[in-house]
Give the backbone structure.
Amino acid sequence: MSDSVLVLNAGSSSVKFGLFDIAPAEPKLRCRGLLDEQEKVPRIVVSDASGKQLFEKRHASGTPDDNGLLSDVFAWIEDYLAGGRLAAVGHRIVHGGREFYGPVVIAGQTLAALEALTPLAPLHQQRCLAPVRAVQSLQPELTQIACFDTAFHHGLAPPVSRFAIPRQFEQRGIRRYGFHGLSFEYVASRLAAIAPRWADKRVVVAHLGNGASLCALRKGGSVDTTMGLTPLDGLVMGTRCGTIDPGVLLYLMQEEKMSVDDVQHLLYEGSGLLGVSGVSADMRALLASHDPAAREAVDLFTFRVAAEVAVMANTLAGLDGLVFTGGIGEHAPEIRQRICDRLSWLGVRIDAAANAQGAQRIAAKGSPVNVLIIPTNEEVSIALHCRSLLVTGH
Ligand SMILES: Nc1ncnc2c1ncn2[C@@H]1O[C@H](COP(=O)(O)OP(=O)(O)O)[C@@H](O)[C@H]1O
Ligand SMILES: CC(=O)OP(=O)(O)O
Ligand SMILES: [Mg+2]
């Protein structure tokens, strides 16, 4: 019986988990699940690698205790592993700050250092750290490993990483970090496997989910990305504004008399698709709606994705490939079509039928830019990092 790693991926709109065998070879998915704490009736669903449901539990009596649904997950895993060893729990942690840019075992002061980064990712950091604290209280001996969304972008260099404010702030860590790195890393490795001819070219990956960002890849590494110091920058998102004139923030505080907390809430949780449409943060609901404000929100979303692809192409000095991933990127043909239509001047042309089917390659025949859909899997990136940290120590 081989060792397993439990991977917990806490995002802004979901908590996913995966159980992987990590010995002796590449991590192999045994089962995956979803902790749905946002529904009225919190529930856990677990299915095997082929998608067959293995387990479901609903907490009809209301919100479970502080350790959320994790104690149920551990009880289920213990049964499922039937004596097999759980070697570690790997976590997606959104911000690693200046100190963390590779996977680390969470020990000593690590948790406190990660908590101190909460202001840099107010919507995410505590959501990612809550499961760490829960596992510490449920299974204090279990090794826990933090894998960072920022790490893949660690090599970003000026001018990309620099904000045009006095240097002393950059020296204090105020610069572009970038996020969704575990997703971009996985997509880059899949691209190398699926389309090796393109993997070394000038490729932009569009991770379009509830949070959304772009990454410019050169030789499989990140050379630019749309998010910045925080996951608020760049594209229009479910509830986040993305890039905005910083003067708006000052105006809201000075003239609208909004507090810092009010502005934070507005920009992180009340803006983006939700704020513009007044209808929903969920792209499915907006695409199904006839409300003109919903159509405008979708239009702003696609306009800004296309505009930022052009920014990434500037960094790459051209564009050879465009890859869609994330909930919207993988499942919304209308959004892909509208983005690609806006980018036709850059040589992006897609085949309508391939796009409608969600084929892997959706570029039109003869399109100068290759266009692909590659479903992301942040859990696999985390499992790989955990395995290499456990086996080789880094
Ligand atoms: N079939 C679909 N058509 C359009 N949008 C979709 C579809 N399926 C999922 N989405 C959108 O994907 C987004 C969630 O993306 P996802 O990557 O799963 O989220 P997270 O950022 O929490 O990981 C939501 O806006 C949802 O509406
Ligand atoms: C960093 C980020 O935006 O993550 P998510 O897509 O989970 O919101
Ligand atoms: Mg996500």
